[in-house]
Amino acid sequence: MNQCIRFEKVTKYYGEKKIVDDVSLSIDKGELVTVLGPSGSGKTTMLKMINGIVQPDSGSIYVYDQDVAKCDIVNLRRRIGYVVQETVLFPHLDIYHNISYVPSLIGISKSKTKRRVRDLVDMLQLDKSMLKRYCDELSGGEKQRIGIARALAASPEIMLMDEPFGALDPETRAILQDELLRIWKELNMTIFFITHDVSEAEKLGSRILVMNEGVLEDKVPAICVD
Ligand SMILES: Nc1ncnc2c1ncn2[C@@H]1O[C@H](COP(=O)(O)OP(=O)(O)O)[C@@H](O)[C@H]1O
Ligand SMILES: [Mg+2]
After folding, report:
1. What tens digit of pLDDT does each residue of 136-153 get?
2. Is the pTM of the predicted complex or chain greater than 0.85?
3. Is the CB of 144 under 6 A from ligand 1?
4. What's the rounded Cα separation, in Å, for the pair 146 and 131?
5. CA of 45 to the centre of ligand 2 (A)
């Protein structure tokens, strides 16, 4: 089965306001879909419905053909990595233990976890000495790299990324974009990536969607007038 995430006529209200408006969408396994849209258009809400943080008022969301409303949510979230704009790390844990938190929690052995962290350090080209540091000893770019490593730690099949590079300077952002593309190709993951940066959406997305006032559309290519 090739379908990974499916929205079927999903609508979400906050109070009287329709935030997500009758969205239907299908994402295949291995796609990197970017979603563009102005602030307040419902992008984050759409993402939160995929891993069950927020429930739709009507319609259904399926992850690998499992209805999110009916499945075991803890199990589901283990298969989904989540990265937000400002990664929040546990301040009392060093970086190693921040990255290995979920693998430890779900009972993966110490030696396997250690190997996994080592692989992630290589994959994200992190300096090994960083693993002993604490989050207040990291730059914004380093924190986001750790956020990605942590989200990848339990080997998820899906990554939900909510403007993960939005607070970074252009140079760091470009480097992390390149790394994400490399990791995506290497791991053959499905990535749902929100941004409000058109060039980022175009650089990363194998498909670009646009969200506007809760309505989702395929991005129509710009028409050349000349
Ligand atoms: N928990 C909530 N309660 C009430 N309103 C909310 C809540 N979360 C988001 N909203 C509102 O829903 C709208 C869409 O929010 P959001 O999905 O975060 O948009 P985006 O990510 O596109 O900026 C905004 O108007 C926001 O204020
Ligand atoms: Mg948002």
Report:
1. 999 998 999 999 999 999
2. yes
3. no
4. 10
5. 7
Q: How many other β-carbons are positioned within 10 Å of the β-carbon of residue 221?
A: 7
* 56 three-class SS: coil
43 lines ligand 1 (CB under 6 A): yes
Using a 6 Å cutoff on CB, does residue 37 contact ligand 1? yes
Q: How far is the CA of 187 from the centre of ligand 2 (A)?
A: 26
List alpha helices for the chain, DSSP H.
43-50, 73-78, 95-99, 101-105, 110-123, 140-152, 170-187, 198-204
Q: Whose CA is nearest to atom 27 of ligand 1?
A: 40
- Taking the C-alpha atoms of residue 59 and residue 44, their distance in angstroms, rounded to an integer, is 17
Q: Which domains does the chain have, with CATH numbers?
A: 1-79+156-226 (3.40.50.300), 90-155 (no CATH)
| Mean of per-residue pLDDT scores for the chain | 92
Span 102-141, pLDDT tens digits = 888 888 899 999 999 999 998 888 889 999 999 999 999 8
